[in-house]
Amino acid sequence: MSDGENLASYPTSSRNQVKRRHDRGFYDHETVHRILDASMMCHVSYVIDGQPYCTPTFFWREGTRLYWHGSSASRMLRNQSSGQRVCLTVAHLDSLVLARCGFNHSADYRAVMAFGTAYLVTDVEEKERAVIAMVDRFFPDRTAGLRQSNTQEIKATSFIAMEIEEASAKIRAKGVADDEEDYELPIYAERIPVRTVLGAPEPCSRLLPGVMRPETLNGYSEGRLLEDALRDAYFLQYPTR
Amino acid sequence: MSDGENLASYPTSSRNQVKRRHDRGFYDHETVHRILDASMMCHVSYVIDGQPYCTPTFFWREGTRLYWHGSSASRMLRNQSSGQRVCLTVAHLDSLVLARCGFNHSADYRAVMAFGTAYLVTDVEEKERAVIAMVDRFFPDRTAGLRQSNTQEIKATSFIAMEIEEASAKIRAKGVADDEEDYELPIYAERIPVRTVLGAPEPCSRLLPGVMRPETLNGYSEGRLLEDALRDAYFLQYPTR
Q: Which residues numbered 9-48 in A keep a CB inside 8 Å of some CB on B?
């Protein structure tokens, strides 16, 4: 990723242009990547024989490329290996918004839709890097201390990747927004924040004596926002991306 | 919904049969609906000219029918009004699972994929019910106390619905699950719970004097799981569904 990332934007087309509420649309790499890197889970849409599928899965970003995890047995993978068009979406729900009329009930959220052509990762070197990244992107440097993957496991693991061709971010972050005349009404309105947080880590009950939690997991502490832990981990592992 | 709901299941086909990890698949109404009713947000996949789109939106269930909210200006709606096939997915992330090898790193989750043919809600009576349900499903009896929707607002609001033709739930809830021989290794493993919780409600700064929070919102209290608040609200509003 070049130094110019903060200035770069994804191109817009009829595919990714935010149609409704133009003021909520963003296309710059910084905004798009920040929303992506705050999540472990995405939803991937793909088409088989005209039938759309929407599959939740785990993913990560490398520059302007997205990787996600599949199984060689999965429907998705069998059909995406030859370069299928997909849409990968990440959404964060930030609040419920209760307004003074039904029409203005809403929610604060941040979402990204990314479009591209998916390919099965078959290059040996790229796959070896993906096997490590799918762990270390979330838990920096963790792979080095694990029982190493064997050939059978690597064979049974499949990764799909796509270069982001177009992407858009859509953000609503304004809480209650009523029609001006409705503020004169004796009706209760509020914003209810929604946060996705980490609970207290639960060590495996079968740990060997003396095996301690590594300091590299300190970012995953009770009460922390999941997205903060994920973003910190990302920048520890990929400081230049 | 009949009294036999708990015994009913959605039919299976190549479309919704859980292909990978059969032990994680469920098709009964009770399991599928419980996962759906715990969420306000879903992701809907649809196809335009062979291009898949994955759109996050707000939805609710009525029996075996799903409704979601759109705008008459939205891409999705323009193309789904004539009965387009869609896949609507809800996923809850319950934990991050750190195992003793990369291959067994995982997550606990609950997800539903629901398949059907979407239609634009044009029937006047069905649309009037939807205008109320899109608020009251989440906030029981709230519409009665709001400034009522005007004709222009109802016209500008669009709903899409689909009868669930097939659906599957996929659940992983076992935390760390390593290969038996790996438990002998001096490697740290843990499960990190993930919870989506409500923050302290933030009353609108422009409330008129004396306007209090209605008791019907008591379920939305600081620190509560969003999914518990949503499920309770659902059963208050639809006790027989």
A: 15, 19-20, 40-41, 43-47
